[in-house]
Recover the amino acids of this structure.
C-alpha cells in the first residue's frame, strides 16, 4: 500500500550556505533544526504555523557555555542572521518519501 514516511534527522545544506552540519527533525508542525560548526552549535525548536516557522527556543553553545533564548530578537547579533536562516529553512524544507510495495504475483 503506498504511503508517506517522514525521515527525521536528515542532514542537508539549507539555502544561504550555513556551512558545517545541519540537521532537521520535523514531526508534523513541530521542528528541531541544529547547525554545528566547530565548537559552535545552534539549535532551534519551534512550530510551523500557517506555512511559516516560529522559534520557541534557541540554544547556542560555544565551547562549554550554553545560552538559551525565547525569541530570535533576543539572540546576540553575531548569531542572529544564522538563527533566522535556520528558522526559515525549517519552515521551507519538508522532505517526504513515498514507498510503494511491489505487487505480489498470484499463482
Amino acid at each position: 500500500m503506498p504511503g508517506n514516511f517522514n525521515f527525521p534527522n536528515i542532514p542537508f545544506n539549507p539555502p544561504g550556505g550555513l556551512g558545517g552540519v545541519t540537521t532537521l527533525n520535523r514531526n508534523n508542525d513541530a521542528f528541531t533544526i541544529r547547525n554545528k560548526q566547530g565548537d559552535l552549535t545552534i539549535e532551534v525548536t519551534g512550530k510551523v504555523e500557517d506555512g511559516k516557522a516560529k522559534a520557541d527556543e534557541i540554544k547556542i553553545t560555544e565551547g562549554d557555555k550554553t545560552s538559551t533564548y525565547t525569541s530570535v530578537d533576543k539572540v546576540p547579533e553575531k548569531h542572529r542572521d544564522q538563527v533566522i536562516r535556520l528558522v526559515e529553512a525549517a519552515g521551507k524544507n519538508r522532505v517526504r518519501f513515498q514507498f510503494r510495495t511491489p505487487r505480489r504475483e498470484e499463482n
User: Anything to note?
Assistant: The CA atoms of residues 64 and 96 lie 36 Å apart. The first strand starts at residue 3 and ends at 5. Confidence is low (pLDDT under 50) at residues 1-5.
